[in-house]
Amino acid sequence: MALKLVGSFPVQPDRVWCAAPHPHLPLVATASTDRAVRIYSLRDFSLVSTIEGGHKRSIRSISWKPNTKGENVLATGSFDSSTGIWHQEHRHAAGGDGEEPLESNAEEREEDEEWRFAVVLDGHDSEVKSVAWSAGGSFLATCSRDKTVWIWEDMGNENYETIAVLQDHSQDVKMVAWHPEEELLASSSYDDTVRLYKEDVDDWVCCAVLTGHTSTVWSISFEKNGHQSRLASASDDQTARIWHRKPKAKEESSTQPPSIIKGTGDETENWEEQSCLPKVHTRTIYSVDWSKKTGLIATAGGDGQIVVYQEVDGAKDGEQPGAGAEGRKEWKIIAQVPAAHGVYEINSVTWCPKWDKKGTTVDGELLLSTGDDGVVNIFELSL
Question: Three-state DSSP class for 138?
Answer without folding.
Answer: coil
